[in-house]
Design brief:
With 253 residues, the chain is an alpha/beta fold. The longest helix is centred in the last third of the chain and has 17 residues. Bound molecules: adenosine-5'-diphosphate (ADP) and magnesium ion (2 copies). It comes from Chloropicon roscoffensis.
């Protein structure tokens, strides 16, 4: 079943066209990588999906789990299981990570008609997740991303995703700024989560092929000037690694 069906999506910022007829279909359980050079519109695409107010959609459509995504408010999209991890996760000084996670989790549970977790119940929900994702329980007692290293911030994003039990995860440059050990830890957390939640669909946005050395993907899409210009399997990423973007024979340019 199609979780995400993007058809001829066009979007602008300040009257400047960024997305130019983007097409993408993601089914339940699939992992897709979207690759492309800086400035091609990858982050714009993710922000348009979650309803960032700076971007206006000027054409095309997006179906999410069979409904019109743009008919939903940004908060309703999150409640419906759409998750975006940020390229630069922000600190929220003075806000405890556990309180933050519980609030986000309860907001979704409430919208789904499920009982909210009290602090003890929430601990019962999050403790096994920490164990499975190999995330230190110290993460819970700290303030949101305060003093976190780049890798810790990215793992905290994966923890949020796991706690929320989202159905579609858009992970924007989850590899950016990380050394190889930190990258491996983040990738391992995503792999563990994916093992547990086989139905979850994932869209990995990345500029670099190296992330795909650690994360298994089903499809690779190359974006250029605001649209997907080539789609293939993991071999497409390896081709990029050795030949660079210029060499890729673009089908729909
Ligand atoms: P990518 O994530 O692929 O590097 P972005 O989606 O961030 O690309 O950017 C696509 C294009 O949109 C770039 O030319 C960028 O300068 C422009 N852009 C993105 N965000 C803004 C913004 N807030 N204001 C003006 N231009 C923007
Ligand atoms: Mg960029
Ligand atoms: Mg970006």
């Amino acid at each position: 079943a199609g979780v995400l069906e993007v058809t001829n999506l066009e979007a602008e910022i300040d009257g400047k066209r960024i997305l130019n007829g983007l097409n993408l279909r993601v089914n339940k359980g699939e992992v897709h990588a979207i690759m492309g050079q800086n400035g091609c519109g990858k982050s714009t695409f993710s922000k348009v999906l979650v309803g960032h107010p700076d971007y206006s959609v000027v054409g095309g459509s997006v179906g999410y789990k069979g409904s019109d995504l743009f008919a939903l408010e940004p908060e309703e999209r999150a409640h419906a299981g759409l998750f975006l991890s940020f390229q630069y996760p922000v600190e929220i000084p003075g806000v405890n990570n556990t309180d933050f996670l519980r609030l986000a989790c309860n907001s979704r549970r409430k919208a789904l008609g499920q009982p909210e977790f009290d602090p003890l119940e929430f601990y019962g929900h999050v403790a096994p997740i920490l164990e499975e994702l190999k995330i230190d329980s110290k993460f819970l007692n700290r303030n949101v991303n305060e003093g976190f290293s780049g890798g810790e911030r990215k793992r905290n994003e994966v923890l949020q995703l796991a706690v929320l039990e989202s159905d579609l995860a858009i992970l924007d440059e989850i590899d950016s700024g990380l050394d190889i050990d930190a990258l491996r830890e983040v990738a391992e957390a995503v792999n563990k989560l994916k093992e547990k939640r086989k139905d979850m669909a994932v869209v990995l946005i990345t500029h670099y092929q190296r992330l795909l050395d650690y994360l298994e993907v089903d499809f690779v899409h190359i974006m250029k000037k605001g649209k997907v210009v080539k789609t293939g399997g993991p071999e497409l990423a390896r081709e990029l690694e050795s030949e660079g973007y210029a060499s890729i024979d673009l089908e729909f340019e």
